Amino acid sequence: NTNKRKLQSLKYNPERKGGDTSKFISTFRKLCYNAEINDIKEQKKYLYKSLPNNHFDYISNEFYNKMKNVNSINELIKEFENIVLEESKLIRNESIVALKHTSTGKYLSSISNLCYTTGSGKQLVFAGGVEPDPNSLWKIQFDTELAIYADTFIRLQHIKSNNFLGIRYQGYQYDNTKGRGIYCYYKSPSTKHTEVICGGEETTWKFNYNKLENYRGYLKSDDIININIKRMYDENGRKNGQVEFLRSHDVQFTIGNDLFQEVVCHNERLGGNDEWCIELIHEVNIF
Fold this sequence. Notes:
With 287 residues, this protein is an alpha+beta fold.
């Protein structure tokens, strides 16, 4: 049967690789109809075989979970479209992303060669406009193709300056409040939390799903996350620093005549000011 043979060799090509989902679905339906394949189990089998091999784990797990209770070709197609939509939101290594601070609606930004006038004097990081602009675009990098919650270390490279988001160790300083010398990091201009810079020495971050600590899914566009960094050094200069979270808040600092909304790292209780919505702006092309 020619239609069955065509079904067996049918392959789904994601839209990011130039595929056409609507066309694929209509071909799949037509071939099932022409080959007189009405059994839903058989239809599932053919659809499953058409899936691409890359991210096979993600798609096949989703397929298995979502198709269990499907009883008609219409339901099958609907669930397939949902999986394809979710898959298109996956954030891949080297994608271009923006990070929106959820409570103030402003995007994590930096400006090439514009530096703090306090602390390290390095390139500043702030919460900028309420729309993504060239200063708020970051290339996200990790060691695998997809990033898994609580597992994957990430780095964020500012597109315009090529510098990485990070923090900077200051060294040994006398601390008046503690009445002794401590090993410390540069402090932010307004609230004196840990300063966040573009061009840091420590630039490796982790991310958590803000609602579920042990969530194990893949990082996707529009996820709301907490982002943290583990300091290399503690106050005694030992290589065992605390974990601190990326925060912004409605606190500003000035450089010249310009006002900037502060972005810091801290180790206080987490709240709404520690939530960031990651948005996929431009996917890395994989051909």
